[in-house]
Amino acid sequence: MYYLDPKIEHLHRVYDQNERKSYLRLDLNENPGGLSQELITKVLSDVTPQMVAQYPETLEFTTKLADFLGTDIAHICLVNGSSEGIRYIIQAFTAPNGRIVGVVPSYFMFQVYSEMYGREFVKVSYNEDLSMNVDNIIKEITEDTQLLILLNPNNPIGNVYSDEEFELIIKEANKRQVTVLIDEAYYYFYPKTFAHYALNNEHVFVTRTFSKLWSMAGCRLGYIIGWPAGIKMVQKLCTPHNTNAFAMKFASEIIEHPEILQNLIDKFNEGRKYLIDMMDKDGYEYKGEAGNFIFIKPTTNADEIVARMKLEKRILIKSYSNVGSLGTCIRVSIGERKFMEQFWSAFIELDK
Q1: Where in the sequence of the chain do the CATH 3.90.1150.10 domains occur?
Q2: Longest Cα pair distance anywhere in the chain, in angstroms?
Q3: Which listed site, 20, 45, 107, 315, has its alpha carbon 20 to 30 Å from 199?
Q4: Which residues lie closer than 8 Å to 111 by C-beta, 6 or more apart?
């Protein structure tokens, strides 16, 4: 008898199949400039027919990554983008109808995966001023909660958790025997990390991606940090050869040359400073403490700005409604200064 899982049938997904490569892409938190052509040429020059033909081998890169992180391979699981790791953690560490707690708005796949597997996703909302009261998170960590998911910095709000706040959260999660997942997709845009919790405690995971600052969204590579027994459980869910050989080669080159990473950080910081200086100069309200994205409240209609930026300026951005007291805003991915100058020039022209 034919069968379709009703959870999948009724799952709401949004797919954007638009051609984006000819636009200035400031809508999905990618690096609009990417890695240097020199680096790409160097890495690709070492690609052989054998490498393309064989299944990817992960041990060499996993060892290199572990050394880079100051740990060992028992604490790391490579995945095809951190979103895959998030999915596996939800699968392995929650039960059907299990209770998962997360803040909203945040990365939409937290809720999608929860619904996909028939879990209950409990939402903790932001305050009107877009601050997050950690007491509201702690209150939802109940005896029947199985997983707490936090994104730090959180997309799209850009808030971060202090050491003191996170210690309170971890203490309550330990008390209630709740697994904690911290998604650090935007690490490096904000230097604080909670990876040491995942390396030194059971039932704490950190997921990271190479898609954001590392500028490899097209390659699909991420990893999970956790305690060895937990990592083994996640690895059981991984599909065979799920890690891209080209992605590992690019990431390996960056690890071997830390000046590349520092250059990416410096360019981002310069672009962010320029954009904030311009918003302050022109009197715009904005929100975004950390991460490579920021909310801006336009003086005109945000949705119209998004449409006109795409049509007239070939720049992709997003609009968000109900952004606390700011109302409807545009959200812009931040990149190096030349792209922020291009965006700001176009935005100022249209927002009048």
Answers
A1: 6-30+259-350
A2: 66
A3: 107
A4: 102, 104, 121, 123
Number of C-beta neighbours around residue 79 at 10 A: 28
Q: Where in the chain is the domain with CATH 3.40.640.10?
A: 43-256
β-partners of residue 256 are none
The pLDDT tens digits for 29-86 are 999 999 999 999 999 999 999 999 999 999 999 999 999 999 999 999 999 999 999 9
Q: Are 246 and 219 in contact (CB under 8 A)?
A: yes
The token pair that represents 72 in the structure block: 């060992």
Q: Does domain 6-30+259-350 have CATH number 1.10.8.60?
A: no
**What are the tens digits of pLDDT across the range 250-299?**
999 999 999 999 999 999 999 999 999 999 999 999 999 899 999 999 99
Q: Give Cα separations from 246 to 45, 76, 143 (angstroms).
A: 12, 19, 44
- Contact assessment for residue 270 and residue 337, using Cβ atoms and an 8 Å cutoff: yes
